[in-house]
């Protein structure tokens, strides 16, 4: 395997001849791809590719699947230092844990947190991720630098709150000027794709919500916000504005194909129609529902209505295979069992919504998400010579239910090998882990975090389960 790694790490074009390639229509044998200048230059039958490129020595990978990298449609790269502090906590942990933690991070800790999270993304097969924006004061450049160094394609949100929820709240005209600067700074970046964000609709005035959504549409970027995730947030919106969050965004004219709404778990039939009519996209975060949510987004109904959605982690755990399993599993438990639906979308739906469909929801459909000529060479080499895939009768379902990140041998973004068997090939991840371990305790101690429960060992000693 070390010889294969050396071939994959070399400079110049690559001609890869895997056992199977996962194309938009499904897995196919007898295919080959040429990677050139960070792109898929050629995707065709192995016979045709080898014939037309005699100058390239094929890298044979008979036991591997070449598949698109996963796209995480919703995550938080600057929350990795908190991780299990939120386990077992009641909903709206962002108010008591994430806002205080992120707001207290200095530039160096933002960098370390984002680099650790980006590494976890790649280890889990995510070659692209949509970051909802850091609430730390003025350190978005540190987040970008970390993501770029690791090689994670990132849609990076710039938070435009003018009513709260971040470390600092500038004047509205300053926010909009900074938003324009953010879009300009990364407009042509090969790995960083700018986005605009408002944490939750109640964190911004009506004028700001509309202005930011319009700016995103005019610039061809994504506007992202969290909506209808928790009952208390829906009720606050009803009390303050007389409408549920999605209804309020629709009333302002702030929905549209440029919009990516995270969660949307507590959603009415009327709101589903609003999403469909405006072509608004959704980030379906099943693990977040399992860990701290009030409900499960009706993803199957969204699919039936033609509502665009992709799978997102919400910063929970970075394993694209387990994310697909959770996405399908929650739909089966929440809706399929009651209706006798034994397929719940089929394996192909979940593969699509963490690759091609996710890229579409994230505003990256012309960039990544598929093994197709002209797209960025963001892909995985998955080892199929494993007990879980033997014997293989239905690879698409097997990837959803048997796949795991330890089966990923290689992770590429922009045509460059970034990880081999879980570890970076060109930088010292062990040193990063040591640095994070050494400095996180102090960062957590100074953050004004409010936890309801102690850590597990102490909580267990209390003798109750609440």
UniProtKB/TrEMBL annotation:
Give the lineage: Bacteria, Pseudomonadati, Pseudomonadota, Alphaproteobacteria, Hyphomicrobiales
Please provide the record's keywords in A-Z order: Hydrolase
A Pfam family: Amidohydro_1
Q: What is this protein called?
A: Cytosine/adenosine deaminase-related metal-dependent hydrolase
- Keyword flag S-adenosyl-L-methionine: no
Query: What are the recorded GO MF terms, alphabetically?
Result: hydrolase activity
The segment(s) forming the Amidohydrolase-related domain are 66-416
Say yes or no: keyword Glycosyltransferase present: no
The text of the family note is: Belongs to the metallo-dependent hydrolases superfamily. ATZ/TRZ family.
Q: Which PANTHER family match?
A: AMIDOHYDROLASE-RELATED DOMAIN-CONTAINING PROTEIN, AMINOHYDROLASE SSNA-RELATED
Q: What InterPro entries is this protein classified in?
A: Amidohydro-rel, Metal-dep_hydrolase_composite, Metal_Hydrolase, MTA/SAH_deaminase
């Amino acid at each position: 395997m070390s010889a294969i790694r050396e071939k994959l790490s070399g400079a110049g074009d690559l001609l890869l001849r895997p056992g199977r390639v996962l194309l938009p229509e499904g897995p196919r044998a007898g295919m080959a791809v040429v990677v050139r200048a960070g792109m898929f230059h050629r995707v065709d039958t192995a016979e045709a590719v080898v014939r037309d490129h005699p100058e390239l020595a094929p890298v044979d990978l008979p036991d591997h699947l070449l598949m698109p990298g996963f796209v995480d449609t919703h995550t938080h790269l600057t929350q990795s230092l908190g991780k299990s502090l939120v386990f077992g906590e009641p909903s709206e942990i962002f108010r008591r844990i994430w806002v205080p933690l992120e707001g207290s991070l200095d530039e160096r800790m933002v960098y370390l947190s984002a680099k650790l999270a980006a590494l976890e993304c790649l280890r889990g097969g995510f070659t692209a991720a949509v970051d909802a924006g850091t609430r730390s004061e003025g350190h978005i450049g540190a987040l970008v630098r970390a993501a770029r160094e690791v090689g994670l394609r990132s849609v990076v949100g710039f938070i435009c709150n003018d009513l709260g929820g971040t470390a600092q709240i500038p004047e509205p005209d300053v926010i909009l000027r900074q938003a324009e600067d953010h879009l300009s700074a990364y407009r042509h970046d090969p790995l960083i794709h700018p986005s605009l964000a408002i944490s939750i609709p109640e964190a911004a005035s009506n004028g700001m919500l509309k202005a930011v959504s319009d700016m995103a549409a005019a610039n061809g970027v994504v506007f992202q916000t969290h909506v209808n995730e928790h009952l208390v947030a829906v009720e606050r919106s009803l009390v303050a504005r007389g409408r549920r969050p999605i209804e309020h965004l629709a009333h302002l004219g702030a929905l549209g194909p440029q919009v990516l709404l995270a969660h949307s778990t507590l959603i009415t039939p009327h709101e589903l129609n609003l999403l469909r009519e405006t072509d608004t996209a959704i980030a379906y975060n099943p693990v977040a529902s399992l860990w701290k949510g009030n409900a499960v987004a009706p993803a199957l109904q969204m699919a039936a209505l033609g509502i665009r959605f992709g799978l997102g982690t919400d910063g929970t755990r970075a394993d694209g295979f387990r994310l697909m399993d959770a996405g399908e599993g929650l739909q089966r438990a929440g809706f399929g069992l009651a209706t006798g639906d034994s397929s719940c979308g089929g394996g192909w739906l979940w593969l699509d919504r963490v690759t091609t469909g996710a890229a579409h929801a994230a505003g990256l459909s012309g960039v990544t998400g598929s093994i197709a000529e002209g797209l960025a060479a963001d892909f995985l080499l998955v080892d199929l010579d494993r007990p879980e895939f033997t014997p293989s009768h239905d690879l698409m379902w097997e990837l959803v239910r048997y796949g795991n990140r330890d089966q990923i041998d290689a992770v590429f973004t922009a045509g460059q090998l970034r990880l081999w068997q879980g570890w970076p090939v060109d930088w010292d991840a062990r040193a990063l882990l040591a640095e994070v371990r050494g400095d996180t305790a102090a960062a957590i101690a100074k953050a004004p975090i409010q936890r309801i429960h102690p850590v597990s060992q102490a909580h267990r000693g209390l003798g109750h389960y609440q």
